[in-house]
Design a protein that fits this description.
The protein is an alpha+beta fold and about 230 residues long. The chain is about 50% helix and about 15% strand. The protein is built from eight helices and six strands; from the N terminus they run ββββαββααααααα. α3 (about 100-130) crosses α4. The protein is elongated and about 80 Å long. The two termini are about 50 Å apart. Pfam families: DUF2293.
Length: about 230
């Protein structure tokens, strides 16, 4: 179990030595104490961000502590970094510098692999849109798929259902695209209309567009969805 140090934005002083205001503090028996009074004053701060440096510093430091700060908006503590021994940090920095080129090559390989995976997935998502909505123009299908499947976006295409090309998830992405692109939904929100009221007002128009896309027009041959990698 890691020691926990809190970063505070308030004017807090140590209960023992009265030093302050404290940036970093430890809570013992419900009262704040500074790092010196809790025998952590010799540690140096390492912000989060460099995974290899953090891992190596933690492994080499016989004493370390996790630094957290309370996020009021999310109502939870979030990790900011570590306090580690200075010698451990120096050794970790040397080790990271020695293999920085190899790690850079590995990151580039991973980036290319993820890009190829994303291209294949976007093409599959667009093809599923065309299958469910044969009247949807192929370029719109690609645009919708590209937007919905951005890695790390949290959009429907990155959910478990979206990655599985679940029909409901794909339909949700298409409906959202029509709502934002083919109606004045965004303008209504900017005008102060509540989100659910705006959706209810525009639902008949959106349903009409989607119903038209579900039925391929007579004599219309829908072109296959273009390959986004082309």
């Amino acid at each position: 179990m890691s020691l926990v140090v809190f970063e505070s934005l308030k004017q807090i002083h140590c209960a023992d030595c009265r030093q302050g205001p404290l940036r970093h503090l430890v809570r013992e028996s419900g009262v704040p104490r500074c790092l010196d009074c809790t025998d952590l004053g010799h540690l140096v701060y390492l912000p989060r961000g460099d995974t290899a440096l953090t891992r190596r510093s933690r492994e080499a430091s016989s004493l370390c502590a996790v630094v957290v700060r309370f996020n009021k908006r999310r109502h939870r503590y979030e990790r900011l970094g570590l306090l580690v021994e200075e010698a451990a940090l120096a050794g970790a920095e040397r080790a990271c510098l020695a293999d920085s080129e190899a790690r850079a090559r590995r990151r580039e390989r991973d980036r290319r692999r993820r890009a190829a995976e994303d291209t294949r997935f976007t093409a599959a998502f667009a093809a599923e849109i065309v299958r469910l909505f044969p009247g949807c123009p192929a370029d719109r299908a690609v645009a919708i798929a590209t937007h919905a499947s951005v890695r790390g976006s949290g959009r429907v295409g990155r959910t478990a259902a979206g990655r599985a090309l679940d029909g409901l998830a794909v339909s949700v992405a298409v409906r959202a695209a029509v709502r934002h692109t083919d109606t004045e939904y965004d303008a209504l929100l900017m005008a102060g209309v509540p989100r659910f009221a705006a959706r209810a007002r525009l639902a008949p128009r959106i349903d009409a567009i989607l119903d038209g896309w579900r039925t391929q027009p007579p004599g219309h041959a829908t072109a296959p969805a273009p390959d986004p990698s082309a």
